[in-house]
Amino acid sequence: MTIAVIGAGAIGSLVAGYLKAEDEDIYLVGHGEAVKAVKENGLKISGVRGDFKVNISIYEELVSKPDLLILATKTQDSEAALRQNLGLIKDSIILTTQNGIQAENIVSSFLPKKNIISSIVMFGATYLEPGRVVHNFEGSWILGNSFSEDFNANIVPVSLILNKAFPTVISENILGMKYLKIFVNANNCIPAILGVSMQEAFSDQQVSQISIAIWKEAFAIISKLDIKLVSLPGFPIERITKLISILPQEAARAFSGAVTKLSKDPLYGSILQSIKRGKISEIDFINGEFVSLAQKYGLKAELNKRLVEMVHTVEKTGRFFTKAELLDITRGLIN
Fold this sequence. Notes:
- With 335 residues, the chain is α/β, with parallel strands linked by helices.
- The chain folds into 2 domains: 2-172, NAD(P)-binding Rossmann-like Domain (Rossmann fold); 178-333, N-(1-d-carboxylethyl)-l-norvaline Dehydrogenase, domain 2.
- 46% of the residues lie in helices and 16% in strands.
- It is built from 15 helices and 12 strands.
- The strands form 2 sheets. It has an 8-stranded mixed beta sheet with strand order 5-2-1-6-7-8-11-12, sandwiched between helices.
- Strand 11, helix 5 and strand 12 form a beta-alpha-beta unit.
- Helix 9 crosses helix 11 and helix 13 packs across helix 14.
- The radius of gyration is 19 Å and the shape is globular.
C-alpha cells in the first residue's frame, strides 16, 4: 500500500518514522514548521527503541492518492484536514487514531463508513519540537469497526502493515475499548492544568485523589447509560473498578506509584502537549465526552465539567494553575 500520514505531531511522526524505517511507501503531511524541519534535518526519534533519524518525504498537503490514509490530527482538526485533501482520499482507506469517540463520526460525514477503520493507540509519544519526538513507552495498536459488528475486510491487510511498527490487535468491540481509552486519557487534564509532567503531577497523592474521583464520576455516568466498557491490552477494566471501590487514599497511592513509573522521560499527555504548542487541546473529546453524556441524559459530571473549564482557561490565558488552586477548586467535588 501507498500510505500518507496527516499530522506530524507525536503519534503521526512516530508511526510514519517507524513504517518508513521498515521501507514502507509512506509520506507525512504537516504544517510549515514541521515540513521545514523534517526536510532540512530529517525526522528524529528517540526513546525506548534508541535514537535515530529517518529521512521521509513531507508536504503541507497530500500530493498523491494514498491507498491508506492515517489521520493523526487532533479530533478538532480532522474536519479541516479532510476538507483540504478530500479530492485525493475519496477511495482511500481511512484509519483514525484520535482519542475519544467522535473522530469516526466526523470522517463519515465526508467518506463512506466502509472505508473507515477505527484504531486505538496504546503506545506513548511526546512531541518535543518540529521534527523531533520521543517514544516514551511501548504498546499495541488496536483496530476495529466502530459502526457495526460486521467485519471490515480492509482491517487485515492494514493490520499486517502496521504490525511492522507496533503489535496490532483486531477488536470485535472497538467502541467499548474506545470508551475505556477515554478513562485512560481523562487524567491528562491534570498535568495540563498544572503545566507539569505527569510524573511530577501524580507524585502528589492529593492530586492523584482527583484522578480517582474523575474515574469514579465518569464510571457512574457510563454505568447508568449501560455503556459496555471493554478491557484494553495492558489496561483491564478491573484497574478502574478496583481503584474506585477502595479507600481514596489507598487508591491514590496505587495510582501515583503506577503513573510515576510509566516512562523515564517526562510524560506530558496529549492535552498539555497541545497547549505547549499554542494549540487548542482535545479536552472536549475526553473529559468533555463525559460532560456531554451527563448533560444529554440529565446526569451530573460536575468534577469533569470544572476540569474542562480549567483547561480552557489555561488555553485562553496561558497561565497554569498552582497545585493549591487546583486542590481548592476541586475540593468540594471529590467524594
